[in-house]
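Problem 3 from the worked examples.
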Amino acid sequence: MSTARPPTALKERMATFIFICMCGLSVAGRSTVAVRAEDKPVELVGLENSRAALQTGRVVWSIRSNMPRTQREMIPRWHFYDVPRYFTSRFTPGECAVEDNGDPEGVVWRRQDGSPEPELGYRGMRFLWCDGAQWEHRDRAGHGRVDQGRRDMIDVRTFGLVCRLPLGDTSHGAIWGAGADRVYTKRVIDGLHEVTAYVPENDSTIRWLIDPERGWNAVQVSVSLRGELVEETRTTLRQFGNVWFPETIEFYETRFEQGRKPVNVVQVLSAEFNDPDHPRRLTPESIGIEVGTNLDVFTADDPFHSIGRFGWDAEKLVPLDELHRRVHARELKLGEVFVLETDRALARGQWIERLETGWERYTRHFINRYRLDAEQTQKAWSILDDCQKRAQAYFGAHQRQIDTIQAKVRDLSGSDKPQVVDEARLLGKLKQQMLRLEAPIADIFYRELVPRLSRLPTRAQRNAVEAPAKNEKKP
């Protein structure tokens, strides 16, 4: 790792000198130059261009959080609390993907007692931003999720541009914000270019400290509110190949340890950019979504409101009945992993586990997202318990049917001999019966648990979550 600046060629020094003269800056002194609001500071343009030049990439990185975890608090998808969590990111000009590789032991989901979750503990999530939607799919899963808008996915091209983990940001959005009026000033301090943006709308100031000799990257970014420092990011740069890029990013907040200790630390372990062997496009198949994968689609305005479940046909999302029709007509062939995991889930009867893990995870996420108080939190868990009891009662009433179908599925799926046509059709019918049995459980989730939880937040709690998302959409 090298934190010192490399020797600069004469022509590079001249280019920097000319650039500074054009900007009206003083290298030796600390004179401040005001910039009109309609003019974008060339330093920030240079910062944005340095990231725009990264057309493709593969980055392996980790994140560690120093914040304590309260009892029953959900483990965030982007970090653990006491050990690093590792990720692999890939990107193209129009897409980006992230793969969760878990902690140093490869565990992506631990229970409250620290043990790996039996079914999903080693099966990482994969995320994709593609064609205006965010896709999520767990390793070796037959189902996934699609959000019609960017949620909380991390694009590594935003590393070092903002003071918090860049959840849902693009490089352009991270630098220029949501379009609020700004008053820029800039100066040079010991060869580093300082740019400040004052936002009258909320009396805040954003400050970048940019190194022109290392790819116009920011080494420090801070945010002040009404003159008081609130957040700060400190970045150590490294040259990966011929590209300067953040190696270590420390995120500080004055409300945590009075700003003396970083809240989160990101470490870039390896990075390669603009390699001719990189894929030029990333698609749902890039994160393991196969023909047949079931995907719940959610609206951009409400991540808890599903508009329905669809199937992937290798090109687009289609209604499930159309998918089934085309599969039976042999126009489509289901993916091998999808078939394997569907058979295994049906044979082992994992729906009860889904009630205990998926529904509880959803409730925890809701509690944390809307910052419910103690009374609201208790009501949320009571709603979950009620819904789970109703689902368990349904299972109890249909247990004989379920056991009979599962036994037949095991017999057909576990046979080593090739399946004849009649057996294959029977297996398909059994799966359809199981899916029909599952429908009332989905109704309890979508028509009971989700709407009942949605009535708990106050207007202020809801506005605190939903208003920023709406503001980000303004041009």
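Problem 4, a separate protein:
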Amino acid sequence: MNYKSLFVLFLITLFPKIGIAQDISIDSLNKMPLETLKLEMFKHEITSSAYSKFSKVYLKRSLKTKDTIQMCRGYYFYAYTLRPELALKYADTIIALSKNSDHDLYPTAGYILKAYTYNVNKFHKKALDNYIIALKYAKEKNYINHIFDISGRISDLKTITGDYKSSTIVNKNVYDLMIKTPGYIKKNKFDYFYLLYSLTTDYINIKEYDSANIYINKAFKEINPSEKYLNISYYDFVNLSGYTHYYKKQYSKAIDSLKKSASNIGDHDRAISSFLISSIYKIQNEETLFLNHALVADSLALKTKNYSGTFRELYENLIDYYKSENNVKKELKYLNRLIKLDSIL
């Protein structure tokens, strides 16, 4: 699972992408109550021209109100349509306007916007610094949604930078708080199952496989196999159980779980699963099965542009295989794949 793709902007409510046409006039937008304008804006993808049009009108109208929070909202909504340097200026404006506000969302939202902008542009240290400040404000205001959201983003950044231990600590703290928050899990199933998924991967990354299995089993007891919770499904946890079986050298169970989940997970995860299956067959000297699954993993890795270090071993295995077959052309093909991967990592 691509973890970054799972985070939704905290103020954006998911609406059906239907409703007002993109060619609605500016005059009509100016006549709407601000709250209606906001709700209609969120019916459009944040990257669409319609969203840009709605948010620009919202900003202009919010500035006329002279109301600090309305102005902050206007800057925030429109900032996501801008290039990074302007988005950062808008974030600083939000922070300056609301630095002494007692509103639940501000100035926290300004720091979230700033962190988000740095993160998507690969400035991970600056993003982390701003998320930490945002989390401080969220805790001061005891705004639980922000605490969970920002903590998740901090955990993601820790994972991206390879600090798996810190990611585990952050997610475990969030888990302990979430299960103590009355009614939260019932109303926010996706958040809960995503947290279980994140904690499981954290424990796999730090090689604590028994701990990983604790959270896999929690998910199995609570998740409905026939439903999806945004990007999360029962089979994501079946797939993760395949990982833990693999690393514990329980190869028969690993193959069973990885194959069972294969048709129900995304190509990114299936690439890794196919690689693990190929590795098991290599260990078992099943050359034909090894090659079949290794080639599937390679194809999916190319399709999804998955440049994970996991695939270094895949290409090394393919190089060794074709070398043993005296197939120089294929050996060089995967040597070039390996060189490209190393240049990216």
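Solution to problem 4. The chain is about 70% helix and 0% strand. The domain at 266-345 is CATH 1.25.40 (Serine Threonine Protein Phosphatase 5, Tetratricopeptide repeat).
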